[in-house]
Amino acid sequence: MKKLFLLMCGLVSGYNMFAQTCSCSSLLNQVITKTESNYAGYIHKVKEKDSSQYVKLKGMLMEKAVKTSFIDCYGVLQQYVGFFHDGHLDIFESPPKQPDSLAATVKTHPLPANYKELIAKKTDRDSIEGIWRAAGNLQLGIVKTGKNTFSGVVQQTSTPKWAPGMVKMEIEKTAKNTYKVAIYRGDFARLRFENVHIFKNVFFAMGFYRFAKSWPINAEYSYINSVDPQLPILKVIDKNNVLLTVPSALIDGRYLDSVLKKNEALITSTPNLIIDVRGNGGGNYIWGSIYKIANTIVHPEPKKPGTDDLLLMASEDDAAYLYNQSTYYRQKKDSLAIKYYDDIIGKIRANPGKIIGFSFYRAWPDTGKRVVYKYPAHIAVITDKAVASAGEAFINGLKETSSKVTLYGDNTYGMIDYSSVNALPIGDKSCKWYYWGYPVFFSTDIKTKPINPTGIKPDIYIPAQEKDWVQWVADDLNKKSKK
């Protein structure tokens, strides 16, 4: 997931309250303690290696924390978790709903009536300049305000108290196609993100926010859901190729299921299915219906007895996490499932700090017969460096499920060796602001076949200069079908 920073503006009294009752030093100490006792990457990346750089960083940050206010502590905490280079180990902030008075702090920057024409004619425009759309009828005009700074100005919106001319987003370019972003929430609280990129030439995403560039127009815009860029779409490319785009897993899986069910006859009568997951940084498990369509395994191979799905470094936080994960079975009063999870929780509590195996509960062996469709005969998955976490898990699962799959595009991000984030509040009850998230599990072959260092490599790389990757893949599939 992207680095998230929420910063409340204009509430000086609130800042003073935090300064009196909370401290950055306390927060940092909690994060260090939790990381060293919960995160298996601490063992792999510190204890089993030269720890001198880690020890030096801790000392420097502890000194820095003493001089840093509670509100400004985010940077210190983020610098600590950043040492591990794991997108699942993160710090984020979640302040409560802010008062309407905060609206007075929002800047304004009215756009000229002919902004669209001016941007189209501009020869030296940055990729971020233009008109961008998001869910909720939100449309921004992003305009350059300084050498490396830009503002996203509201052109239209359905959000109450927001109006055209108000600055919804402030952007700083830090490197080629790399930006820092401050976006103002519906209640005017400011959320800040780092290392945000444009991908597919048309998507600009951070956290739950996803914008699609509608002007100046480019080929990729025709492959997105213009009403809500988070949502999947299905589109016929030609008689041989159907495209399914799944740009985010931060959606209700039932929406994707409905798209596939509605178009099942089309998909299962067309030779090729192209699945575009570029930019899918993870989220929920939404992939079941795709696996069914792609499947080429009639009978799944039984799991070998005693084989663990995953590993974890046992801790009390892990025990609490798995107890919460078993809530469904407890509500259903499934005694077998309850005993299964209680046994694992007991094993975790009996072995703090040790590496133990974990497998998900299965009520019975998975031996059911699978349907194998004649079509699609070929499945092309388009990836890029923004595909991460659950997006990468989908690719791995699809390749295990189907022999029809070919990966096109670029390497994925590399955020799958450690997985399943447990997010915990840090600070005392008067400091409800920061959260620390860590991955509970890690893969059993993390040392022999790690994915994170390179990401998942495609079978066929698409030339970076290609502006329409979907058409490039469709053309390649059509060429191969003629051979």
Could you outline the blueprint of secondary structure elements for this entry?
Elements: E1 4-7, H1 12-21, H2 24-38, H3 40-47, H4 52-66, H5 73-82, E2 90-93, H6 115-121, E3 130-134, E4 138-144, E5 149-156, E6 167-175, E7 178-184, E8 190-196, E9 198-199, E10 203-206, E11 209-215, E12 233-238, E13 241-245, H7 253-262, H8 264-267, E14 272-276, H9 288-294, E15 310-313, H10 316-325, H11 327-331, H12 335-350, E16 355-358, E17 378-383, H13 390-401, E18 405-409, E19 418-425, E20 434-442, E21 460-461, H14 469-482
Parallel strand pairs: 13-14, 14-17, 17-18, 18-21
Antiparallel strand pairs: 1-8, 2-20, 3-4, 3-11, 4-5, 5-6, 6-7, 7-8, 9-10, 10-11, 12-13, 15-16, 15-20, 19-20
Helix pairs in contact: 2-4, 2-5, 4-5, 10-12
Structure description:
With 483 residues, this protein is α+β, with helices and mostly antiparallel strands. Helices cover 30% and strands 24% of the residues. It contains 14 helices and 21 strands. A ten-stranded antiparallel sheet has the order 1-8-7-6-5-4-3-11-10-9. Strands 12-13-14-17-18-21 form a six-stranded mixed sheet, with helices on both faces. It is globular and about 70 Å long. Residues 1-20 have low confidence and may be disordered.
Reading side by side through the largest sheet, how are the strands ordered? 1-8-7-6-5-4-3-11-10-9
Shape: globular
| Total beta strand runs | 21
Structural class: alpha+beta
How far apart, in Å, are the first and last alpha carbons?
Answer: 42 Å
Strand content: 15-25%
Mean pLDDT across all residues, rounded?
Answer: 91
Total helices: the number is: 14
Work out the helicity level.
25-40%
Q: Characterize the largest beta sheet: strand count, sense, and whether it forms a barrel.
A: 10 strands, antiparallel
**Rg, Å, rounded:** 24 Å
Uncertain residue segments: 1-20
